[in-house]
């Protein structure tokens, strides 16, 4: 730089990079497990500027600037099934705020408790790739890494089998009665004749 040339490298030396500005207004982060994968929801709330920004998996879904009302709701969709999500912004005292996430009209906790009853999830490593397989028990839809799988149902002696393929691997989910009313039906994932343990999300 020549002497006497006072032009800064950036137009405004006082402004921090965008990534730092983003972090100062980031007030809440949630990870939500849906059939098509685990989605990260981030919420920015500028309490002095009134800014509200919602990101789903790093992609901006909602941006509102200069909101005079600092409390309220922001509603948006998450995942392949366009699941309805709402962030509630409530004042707790003075300039302190509480942020809660609802999925399909239920608190995140209630939604996840209900989801554990209506889905089964397995995680496995196959051909150098991590796979997440989800069975929706009410529809018998099978998802693998965010894609709804083509399936074929078959009745067998002790229950049903829902067949699908992942790459060159034969997979099926076996559904058998536990014989106990409280336990209901037990779902088991079989890949290449090997049982995969279920995980709890």
Automatic annotation (TrEMBL):
Its main location: cytoplasm. InterPro entries: FAIM1, FAIM1_dom_sf. Keywords: Apoptosis, Cytoplasm. The keyword Nucleotide-binding does not apply. GO terms for biological process: apoptotic process; negative regulation of extrinsic apoptotic signaling pathway via death domain receptors. The keyword DNA damage does not apply. GO terms for cellular component: cytoplasm. It is found in: Cytoplasm. Belongs to the FAIM1 family. Plays a role as an inducible effector molecule that mediates Fas resistance produced by surface Ig engagement in B cells. This is Fas apoptotic inhibitory molecule 1. It comes from Myotis myotis. The lineage of its organism: Eukaryota, Metazoa, Chordata, Craniata, Vertebrata.
